[in-house]
Design brief:
194 residues, mainly alpha, Rna Polymerase Sigma Factor, Chain: A, 64% helix, 0% strand
Length: 194
């Protein structure tokens, strides 16, 4: 089955398309012009009865065009907001590479062992949330669901637990050396940071 292209479009329709193309071209990126013009033409066709009764058809067409331009930018804004939200969603982030497993991300001087040791000396609630989220890379939203907690509660608890872990590491490993850390905090049952 062969379709023949329709090439004898009325000169008025071609003039309208060219005028809309120029109108839209100065208002949207070049790669979106044809799509927006198509949306405008579709709206004109769908609402041709309103066009037929309009007192000023040209004004009606350009009002429709402006409306479609607004729709285009609203859609772009929603897409950008969704993308930004996805990129900044803390529940989808992996925590600062605390649990390194590949050869390229080798565990530098036993950092994972040190963290695991320090975490094991902390309160049970802190141990649970730090191990799940930071060491096992459980998403915060999944942890909240598994433990019947609200997401804001989990976010607050993990921040407090991380702060306590940080304070404990600073107190136990003041020079940042792993040898000092291994001797004092992993074997200690309490730390000055508590």
């Amino acid at each position: 089955m062969k379709f023949t292209p329709v090439s004898d479009t009325s000169s008025d329709w071609q003039a309208l398309q060219k005028g809309l193309h120029r109108f839209v071209q100065s208002r949207v990126p070049n790669d979106a012009v044809d799509d927006v013009v198509s949306d405008i033409l579709e709206a004109i066709i769908r609402n041709r009865s309103s066009l037929a009764t309009a007192s000023n058809p040209s004004a009606w067409i350009y009002a429709t065009a402006r409306s479609k331009l607004v729709d285009y930018y609203r859609k772009k804004s929603r897409e950008r907001s969704a993308l930004d939200a996805l990129q900044s969603d803390p529940t989808t982030e992996t925590p600062n590479n605390l649990n390194r497993t590949t050869d390229d991300d080798a565990d530098v001087n036993g950092l994972n062992d040190c963290l695991t040791g320090i975490i094991s000396t902390m309160a049970a609630g802190d141990q649970n949330i730090l191990r799940a989220i930071d060491l096992n890379r459980t998403r915060q939203i999944d942890f909240a669901t598994q433990n019947n907690l609200a997401l804001p509660t989990v976010k607050s608890r993990i921040q407090r637990a991380r702060k306590r872990l940080r304070n404990r590491m600073i107190a136990c490993c003041p020079d940042g050396g792993m040898s000092t850390c291994e001797r004092t905090c992993i074997t200690a049952t309490s730390c000055a940071a508590d």
